[in-house]
Specification:
alpha/beta; Helicase, Ruva Protein, domain 3; Rossmann fold; 2 domains; five-stranded parallel beta sheet; 12 helices; elongated
Length: about 270
């Protein structure tokens, strides 16, 4: 795969990998839906409330979170970013302590909660930072964890909530927030963004943008290839990345300077 990789990069004169998942923040295509996510998160944070980001696997939720949190100035904000698991609230507390840079082995849940809260109060009141808890893959969280999360964000009575949250996950995240035990948390939600598959026109823009990042000015994907990538991916960026990259490899192997639907189909079946 190493030589094949070099070959296709040389063949199309790609200065870098155009379709990778860990793209730099300033290279992320600013789509209307991404701008919408950013606006809703800022609104929720300003109110000390909760923003939801939902969407299918591969629709760009994690990229959106990475972009929005990455654009926040570190002198004003502290983002506590964790990827959820199916574990108990203890697991979530351990993750939070880890993100906060605190070592705590073998202590009770109550002690963990107290230490986390104290650290957040110190950051907010002492260092004058806005602290945001971001939970990716939140649809994996157990129901009882939602109830506990509400407890975590309850500080002194009558005070403005110190811990705004962003919860991101698949659409069943909404269902989990509808249970009675989740309602105190759900009542703090002020904005929801739902990421869907993009249109063919948006997919064309996306492909051109990523080729430009790699130093390719002309669109090497023909009309049939763009349609095949959009249909084959359902408009979801993660799958589109896989198809586009695969089609580039197939086309380079066949010494074709233009990528068409056949190359995309071969990439879809991974016959390369």
């Amino acid at each position: 795969m190493g030589t094949m990789k070099t070959n296709y990069r040389m063949f199309f004169e790609l200065q870098r990998e155009p379709f990778c998942s860990d793209i730099e923040l300033d290279h992320i295509l600013l789509t209307p839906s991404l701008t919408g996510v950013e606006e809703r998160i800022h609104y929720a944070v300003g109110l000390g409330a909760i923003a939801l980001v939902t969407g299918e696997i591969g629709s760009g939720k994690s990229t959106a979170l990475r972009y929005v949190t990455g654009m926040l100035h570190p002198s004003q904000y502290r983002t506590l970013y964790i990827t959820a698991s199916t574990g108990s609230i203890l697991e979530l507390y351990r993750q939070l302590l880890d993100v906060l840079g605190m070592e705590m082995g073998g202590v009770s849940r109550a002690v963990m909660l107290r230490r986390i809260r104290q650290e957040i109060i110190d950051l907010v009141q002492g260092k004058k930072l806005k602290v945001i808890l971001v939970i990716d893959e939140a649809s994996l969280l157990r129901l009882e964890v939602f109830a506990e999360l509400h407890t975590l964000t309850q500080f002194e009575k009558d005070s403005k909530p110190l811990l705004p949250m962003v919860l991101a996950g698949q659409s069943n995240l909404i269902d989990n927030l509808m249970y009675r035990s989740s309602l105190p948390l759900a009542s703090r939600i002020v904005g929801r963004s739902h990421l869907e598959g993009v249109t063919r026109e948006q997919m064309e823009q996306y492909l051109k943008h990523h080729l430009a990042i790699a130093g390719v000015k002309n669109n090497i994907f023909d009309e049939t290839a763009i349609t095949a990538i959009q249909q084959g991916s359902g408009g979801l960026f993660r799958k589109a990345n896989h198809l586009a990259r695969g089609a580039i490899i197939v086309a380079a192997k066949n010494k074709s300077m233009t990528i068409n639907a056949d190359h995309v189909r071969m990439a879809a079946t991974e016959v390369f």
